[in-house]
Amino acid sequence: MSKIKILVVDDSVVVRRLVTNVLEGDPELEVVGVAANGKIALAKISQVHPDLIVLDVEMPEMNGLETLAEIRKQDKNIPVIMFSALTELGANSTLEALSLGATDYVTKPSNMKSKEAALQNVREQLIPKIKVFCRDDRWQKSGIIPAVKTENKAITTVPSKSLFIASKTAVNIQPKVEVVAVGVSTGGPNALEAILREIPANFRVPIVIVQHMPPVFTKRLAERLTQKCQIRVEEAVTGDILIPGVAWIAPGDYHMVLEKHGFKVQIRTHQEAPENSCRPAVDVLFRSAAKIYGAGVLGVVLTGMGQDGLHGCEQIREAGGRIIVQDEASSVVWGMPGIVANSGLADRVVSLQEMAKEIIDRV
Fold it and tell me: Is the dihedral of CA 139, 79, 31, 12 positive or negative?
């Protein structure tokens, strides 16, 4: 297999060297060029023909957003991973970059003085994403999910009229939906915006969301979504009471669980051990939703790497709830929804474009 060719763009010599050393340490990767700003990067792209670009957000002369816009004019498909500082400015810029067509992002190590910690941070965050985005048969090669069987692929096709009628009948006799619980990771901000902006202001159940994101980023995401949606979107805080027509996003680095207090359901956030290497974790939220709402849970699994949410979906199904997942074609990464579909837990697999309608119809 030929090596994956990477262009690293960052105005810091220290960061360029660190990222290059980490990537060159993997036998499957090759750094074919580095650039100190966007102008240099744009000139180098035609020279080194990278398979993927790691792009700093904040740079002099031509910043990451400006560079990304120019890259997308030339090539709409090349993967671009934004390299962002863990700050409010970095969070805002990263969310804007994702809306402009960045494939994903990673955050810079907060402590660059500890060389080994910085190396490990970049190694764990960046390399898996590079390998996923640069392989044609990426799900099987990366071991993220098992090979998709023919019978499971059929789920994503439009069912026959008779099957559609049977499905509608089955839905109609199910217990009413009392909460929508959403799990999402890579590609999530754009997917959430596409769905939530279609949810009406009078939506009659609460929505709870785990989006794999660091602190600061989740708060900025909630604020951004509130501006674009009819419903209010908030970063969750312990003690929040679930009410219809509001969506809560788990705060970065905190798990979110639902708890019953009298006739009310409240949110509690905590920092117990990560699950699936994630905090917040989808499994934690789904497990608590199944315990509180039972058959009243509608679980939704959207684009994302890994398998967080799989065990939570099992518990939702055991409690009598329903699961819908995003299809492969519209997912940035079909890891999380794919493994749920392949495990036979999904009631339906639908495109991102159909997801809001599917949720509204079921509620």
Answer: negative
Please calculate the CA angle 268-270-275 and round it to the nearest 5 degrees.
115
pLDDT tens across the length of the chain (363 residues): 789 999 999 999 999 999 999 999 999 999 999 999 999 999 999 999 999 999 999 998 899 999 999 999 999 999 999 998 888 888 999 999 999 999 999 998 766 567 787 788 888 989 999 999 997 544 333 334 333 333 333 333 333 333 333 444 444 567 899 999 999 999 999 999 999 999 999 999 999 999 999 999 999 999 999 999 999 999 999 999 999 999 999 999 999 999 999 999 999 999 999 999 999 999 999 999 999 999 999 999 999 999 999 999 999 999 999 999 999 999 999 999 999 999 999 999 999 999 999 999 999
Q: Name every residue whose Cβ is closer than 8 Å to that of residue 329 and which is 6 or more positions away in sequence.
A: 156, 351
Phi and psi, residue 32, nearest 5°: -95, -5
- Given the residues 51, 283, 308, 327, the one annotated as active site: 308
Determine whether 212 is an active site residue.
Answer: yes
Please give the Cα distance from 53 to 7 (Å, whole number). Answer: 5
Q: Which of 212, 240, 255, 327 is catalytic?
A: 212
- Write down the catalytic residue from 93, 185, 288, 331: 185
CATH numbers and ranges of domains, the chain: 4-134 (3.40.50.2300), 150-362 (3.40.50.180)
343 catalytic per annotation? no
In 3D space, the residue among 185, 3, 28, 20 whose CA is nearest the CA of residue 98 turns out to be: 185
Enumerate residues 6+ apart whose C-beta is below 8 A from 152.
Answer: 341, 342, 344
Phi, psi of 282 (to 5 degrees): -65, -40
Q: Are the C-beta atoms of residues 119 and 12 closer than 8 Å to each other?
A: no
Indicate the residue type of 114.
Answer: S
